[in-house]
Every structure is written in structure tokens, then in C-alpha cells.
Design brief:
alpha/beta; Rossmann fold; 2 domains; 8-stranded mixed sheet; 4-stranded antiparallel sheet; 12 strands; globular
Length: 329
């Protein structure tokens, strides 16, 4: 994909954390583009590096332990990895916004919703009190919070989980960003509220012409709202394609395992769900070669375990980490 068609380009990103046990690489040389006005889904199990990727883009890695060791993150021609901190703060929350995983911990429990929305506005623009109030009420109504004026004076603990998530979306979108990163925005919400939140994000994306990175472990969500998909495993992208190709013909064994684990209408009632054996390895146990080898149940050679497979375009727009054992020809 050409850079002109993309709002964000990530190339060979490497992110690590300094720990008592040494430096641990959590994101290991990943590359992807986010098309303008489209939604890129990043999917994988917990511990695969999805959230670390988001925090790398926004430069919100925990300090001083989190570090971007290499690679490039370019947003509309600006290199974010070397952007001065003051400029990055101006960009974050204005041009690039993020919806965090847990609204109860992301919102300040001792400040009202209105005060937190006002802070998001005043950090980036100079507005009168009346303008701040008007914009806050308008955005609360856009995210379909009833009695918006009343809710502005309430605290996060007075709201339901779905309502808090809507407040988070309002805070993220109040400055009309060009790109939104949604880190598992429907976690811990019931199915009905999940559907409402996803529909809301999609509607606001069309209205504001935003690009979206949607991080999730739910392939059902990916199928419903995304245009392109990157499948992450153990700190790497193992497969990347448009959503139709990925679901029609998954090529990596890990992607196939994720899709097979989804319950289907034709399955025998009360039959066991299929599962990928084992767990995602911890960062300290990441192998230099094929990282899915330990769960693939297929023998790998020493070379396949110790040499990183090339990231190969096996069909137009369809890329895969090409371990011969784990990739279907």
C-alpha cells in the first residue's frame, strides 16, 4: 500500500521493557499501514503485544522501563519515534486519540465527567467556559448518553460500565481526531452493549472521516467492523490481509486455530469447543525462529526454531510469516 493511501505507517517496530531479568522485547519488528478512513483490526490472544503496539504509537509506554528500540512510526509524514515530547503531547488526544481497555481505571474517580471532558478540550484549544460546556454536551449526545447535562455533573462510579465506555469515547473524540486507537473497547461489557458500542464507533468514524485501529481478541468483532486485519502472536504479526481474504483463506496455523475456535451454528449442540493447545509463551521464552512451533503439534527443524521466518506476500495484499510448517500452501 502506498504511503499516500495510508495515514499511519509502522515499519519494523521493536519495543522492549527493561526488567530485573534483563531487557525483554515485547514487540519484535512488526510492520503495517492504516488506510485513510478505514479500520485496521489487530487480533490475538492476551500477551501477544497488541496493547504494547498501541502504547508505542502514542508514546505512552511505562517509563523509564518501556523503550522503542528500533523501527519507524510515521503519522501524516511525521516521525513519531523521534518527535519532541511537547509536540507528541499536542498530537496525542488531538490528532491521535485512544480508548483504553478499562474505563473505570482510565477515568479519574474523583473528578466529574464534565471536568474530565473540559480538560480534554482545554489541553488543545482555548475556549470560553460556555464553549467548553456546549462542546461537552454536544459530544455526550453524539455518544448517545441520555440526560447529558445531568451526567456532566456525575462521577464515574455513578455510571454503568456501558455508560463509562461512552464517556471514554466522548473524551477520545471530542477534538475530532484523524485517527482513533480503540484498545479492546468492548471488554467486560455484555453482548448487547458491545454491539451498541461498536455501532457507535462505526457511525462516528463515518461522520468524522477517521481512521481506526481496533485491538481485540474477538474475531467476531473483526469480521463485523474491520477492513484489514493483522494477526499478532508472541510479539510478531504472523498474518496480515484484508478481512475477506483472511476469513476465506487463512494461511497461518495460528490464524486457522483462532477461526476454528469460534462456535458455529452447524456445530453439534453441547459439543466441545475447539481450542489451540497450550498458551502464548512469556516474553522471556520467545524463540528467535517460529514462535508458534510449541503449539502447532507439528515437528520443526532446528533452523525453523532458530531463524526468523521471512514475512512474505503470498497473494496480492496477503502477507504471512512464512514458516513452511505453519503456513498452508
Amino acid at each position: 500500500m502506498s504511503s499516500s493511501a495510508s495515514i499511519l505507517q509502522v515499519r519494523n517496530l521493536v519495543t522492549a521493557f527493561d526488567t530485573d531479568a534483563g531487557r525483554m522485547v515485547a514487540v519484535d519488528g512488526i510492520s503495517f499501514d492504516v488506510p485513510r478512513g478505514k479500520t485496521l483490526g489487530i487480533v490475538g490472544e492476551s500477551g501477544c503485544g497488541k496493547s504494547v503496539t498501541a502504547f508505542s504509537i502514542t508514546r505512552l509506554l511505562p517509563q523509564p522501563h518501556g523503550k522503542i528500540l528500533g523501527g519507524s512510526i510515521t503519522f501524516e509524514g511525521k516521525e513519531l519515534t523521534t518527535l519532541p515530547l511537547e509536540e507528541m503531547r499536542g498530537l496525542r488526544g488531538d490528532d491521535i486519540s485512544m480508548i483504553f481497555q478499562e474505563p473505570m481505571t482510565a477515568l479519574n474517580p474523583v473528578q466529574t465527567v464534565g471536568r474530565q471532558l473540559a480538560e480534554a478540550i482545554l489541553l488543545h484549544t482555548e475556549c470560553s467556559k460556555a464553549e467548553v460546556l456546549s462542546r461537552s454536551i454536544d459530544m455526550m449526545k453524539k455518544v448517545r448518553i441520555p440526560a447529558a447535562e445531568q451526567r456532566l455533573n456525575e462521577y464515574p462510579h455513578q455510571l454503568s460500565g456501558g455508560m463509562r465506555q461512552r464517556v471514554m469515547i466522548a473524551m477520545a473524540l471530542i477534538n475530532k481526531p484523524r485517527m482513533l486507537i480503540a484498545d479492546e473497547p468492548t471488554t467486560a461489557l455484555d453482548v448487547t452493549v458491545q454491539a451498541q458500542i461498536l455501532a457507535l464507533i462505526a457511525d462516528l468514524q463515518k461522520e468524522m472521516h477517521m481512521s481506526v485501529i481496533l485491538i481485540t481478541h474477538d474475531l467476531g468483532v473483526i469480521a463485523e467492523v474491520c477492513d484489514e486485519v493483522a494477526v499478532m502472536y508472541a510479539g510478531r504479526i504472523v498474518e496480515r490481509a484484508n478481512v475477506y481474504d483472511l476469513f476465506a483463506k487463512p494461511r497461518h496455523a495460528y490464524t486457522q486455530g483462532l477461526l476454528e475456535s469460534i462456535p458455529k451454528l452447524g456445530d453439534t449442540p453441547k459439543s466441545r469447543l475447539r481450542a489451540i493447545p497450550g498458551n502464548v509463551p512469556g516474553i522471556a521464552d520467545f524463540k528467535p525462529g517460529c514462535r508458534f512451533a510449541g503449539r502447532s503439534q507439528r515437528p520443526h527443524t532446528d533452523e525453523q526454531l532458530n531463524v526468523r521466518p521471512p514475512f512474505t506476500e503470498i497473494a496480492p495484499g496477503h502477507w504471512v510469516e512464512h514458516c513452511p510448517v505453519c503456513v498452508q500452501s
